[in-house]
Design a protein that fits this description.
- The chain is mainly alpha-helical.
- The N and C termini lie far apart (57 Å).
- Helix content is 63%, strand content 0%.
- It is elongated and about 60 Å long.
- It has three helices and no strands.
């Protein structure tokens, strides 16, 4: 926590999860805070990727599930 602009938050972990975090942090010579920050960054990046994919596909036509199934049956795919 070298950066002075970091914010403090209270997070409650299940005891087994907290123990696993402490062990993992010790194993990789890190802190629990660094592990949690990285996990949150990854989760937010994944959300951003999902939102970008939705945005890129929003102009695609909507297909009704029933119609897709009927078409697959018609073409002998199912």
């Amino acid at each position: 926590m070298a950066e002075s602009t970091q914010k403090r938050a209270t997070v409650y972990f299940e005891p087994s999860l907290h123990k696993a975090l402490r062990l993992k942090a010790a194993e990789i010579d890190s802190s629990v805070s660094e592990l949690v920050n990285e996990a949150v960054r990854e989760a937010l990046a994944e959300d951003a990727e999902d939102l970008a994919a939705f945005e890129a596909r929003k102009r695609e036509p909507e297909l009704m599930f029933e119609n897709v199934v009927k078409d697959l049956r018609r073409r002998g795919k199912i």
